[in-house]
Amino acid sequence: MSNAFIDAIAARRSIYALGKNVSLSSDAITALVKEAVKHSPSSFNSQSSRVVVLFGHAHETLWDIVKSTLKKIVPAEAFGATENKLSSFAAGAGTILFFEDTTVIDELQKQFAAYADNFPIWSEHSTGIAQFAVWSALAQEKIGASLQHYNPLIDDEVKATWHLPASWKLRAQMPFGSIENPAGEKTYISDETRFKVFK
To answer: How deeply is 189 buried, as exposed, middle or buried, from its count of CB atoms within 10 A (0-12, 13-18, 19+)?
Structure first.
């Protein structure tokens, strides 16, 4: 099957060996992220996703925050492996932080009370779509990335460091950079297990 969109999303992989030799400038990467998020769908067109893009010192500061936070809770004998993993993220060109604005969700819950329980769920759908869109867009530029979840452990310090609104709820961190080692072969479960078609 030949389809440019399917080819694009198939190119998106979790890349852990990152470098700083990316093909795009920080301004071009920022513009790409903005467009990918802007065109990502959300329930009731809520546009609840919020994004912070970190480069240079700010990017390194984030992974210092993660490291110092985890050092307090990870057993000393296991921290070496954790530190190596975090260093691989810090070696990249930047990090994208994905948030959801809870103020938007709260307002929708008030406005459409019948769906109140669903809006937090739909918000998770929205951020997932935005993350996937950005990840795939980066892959098209031969920029590697992975998706990390050190929230909520780092939430308060991240908000304080970059003076972010209290209503922004951190959902994921996406370190990105040049692909220093490609992803390994990916395996798939059988179509018979995963899909059912009725006519």
So the answer is: exposed
Listing DSSP states for 115-174 in one string gives: GTTTHHHHHHHHHHHHHHHHHHHHHHTTEEE--B--TTTTHHHHHHHHT--TTEEEEEEE
* Cα(18)–Cα(133) distance, integer angstroms: 20
- The tens digit of pLDDT for each residue in 70-93 reads 999 999 999 999 999 999 999 999
**CA gap 183, 195 in Å, rounded:** 26
Domain span including residue 90: 13-181
Domain membership of residue 176 (yes or no) is yes
Q: What global pTM score does this model have?
A: 0.96
Task: Name the amino acid, one letter, at 71.
Answer: K
